[in-house]
Please model this.
Amino acid sequence: MVWSRLGTSSRFLLIGSFVLWNVVEGWSFTFAWMRLRARWHLGFPALAWLLGGYFRIWFHLFVLAARGSLGGSYVWEGMLGFLFFFSFRSVWAFILLSCSLFVCFFTRSSLANSVGLCWTSDGSGSFDIQEAEGVAVGTKIVLHLKPDSREYSDEDRIREVIKKYSNFVGSSIFLNGRKANNIEPVWLLDPKDVKREQHNDFYRFVGNTFDTPRFILHYKTDVPLSIRALLYFPEGKPGLFDLSRDGDIGVALYTRKILIQSKTDNLLPKWLRFVKGVVDSEDIPLNLSRELLQNSALIRKLRNVLTNRVLRFLQERAQKEPEEFAKFYQDYGLFLKEGIVTSEEHKDKEEIARLLRFDSSKCTEKDQKISLPEYVSRKGEQQRDIYYLAAPNRTLAESSPYYEGLKKRQVEVLFCYEPYDELVLMQLGMFMGCNVVSVEKEMRLDKAATEPTDLGEGSLLRTQVDELISWIREKLAGKVANVKITTRLDAHPCVVTVEEMAAARHFIRTQSHQLSEENRFALLQPQLEINPRHDIIKKLHKLRESNPDLAQLLIEQLFANAMVGAGLSEDPRLLLVKMNDLLAKALEKH
Model:
């Protein structure tokens, strides 16, 4: 016996099991609700009203009955097969109405002296009811299929439909003598009672995969919505189609164990498309259409609740299982970064950003990573910004001219090795009240270093510096917007800065090929900062008078090198020609 709550107020008593047969040779499909007990006897008028109305307004009748609009709580005998369609949802109505030449309903009450009835219709709007002999107690429905719908007389096809839409109905479903719905609705069980093996089997079922879950989020809540959720985070690495934003969300939406949609795009944000599982909410109406799924305020509220719970769960895993989370982040960190770029609310960006992990100038162990909250907790009291540097690897980051100044001040810098990391941090903008700033931008804004009163020991004289700057501006006209000196450099002769380095690099990678070199420099407005204490700069000052041609090649090469170091060169291979010219000129006298 199973009590199934349908609608908002009425209860239907369901006793027994669904029994299905399919016969290929006869081009028919048969299913029945057997062994039913009854309080109500359906005679000719009731059967005519019920089934005739069903074919015209089948769903409307069900909603009215479920809400008690047909006179309160009914226990329908015999025609409990009618409810069978709703337990299997509209897919069975599709088979019934679209794929059948005609359909026969056989029903008989368990009351004494009841007779069997046969209701027949071809779907044209008319039907016929006759007494029938040899009808067992309960309901049997025989669909005579159209030739082009023969697939529904195939056992494997029907088993596939049952598995997809009706695996978790309250009653057993037997197909040709074998139980077809063998999987238990694990999400409705107490999390403490579910074994790991059950989770593995259910994960493989809902995810259509062969691996095992890395993390399992199994929870229920009644506030602000009634939610029973079972979400899995895969152990395997994401595939090519998982990385595509065109991939489907892997979470199915149920209401009272009845499938609403197997892959619900709006149930979780796109960046969580790697999550697999089931969400069951009694607040979701059975007749929720695809349009309502896309625009429903209820679905948006459910989405917010689930997203926040997933983020909180991952933050808990990061604290309790740091090593396992590190493996997860290595495989799925790209999805988290996508979430920061695509989220509209800054509070959502900050919650996702708590999960990010980066190498740092103060990380001393191999593969050690830190989070943004860790960075904020150990920065100096006077430091108001979070600094980051984009570089292909740690060696290049530590040798970068942009890192020199902050290194001398012992300021921690995050090292970003992926091309999209700086775009992510640029989109984040602020975290826990701190501005997220690239070291290049910090360097450009440091007026104390670019307008020094003391050039330092071993530097060119002020007059020599001014002469050299004027000469460089002349030789690099059309390429640089300005030339300045800087005292922040020690190991490097010069460096290039632009207003928004991260955005500029993204532009170079994606759009610059559409522009000429002249237009590209005009858009970037690069500023060249020279180190007056560096030997190359001091030699350049002498060469501009003793060997102007060589000095011209040298300053062009220094500028090109600085553009490569800044990641603003479209193709570094183009520098080889100028490099060879410079070497040839330097070796003329040898």
The radius of gyration is 36 Å. Confidence is low (pLDDT under 50) at residues 1-17, 33-41, 54-94. Residues 215 and 562 are 46 Å apart (CA to CA).
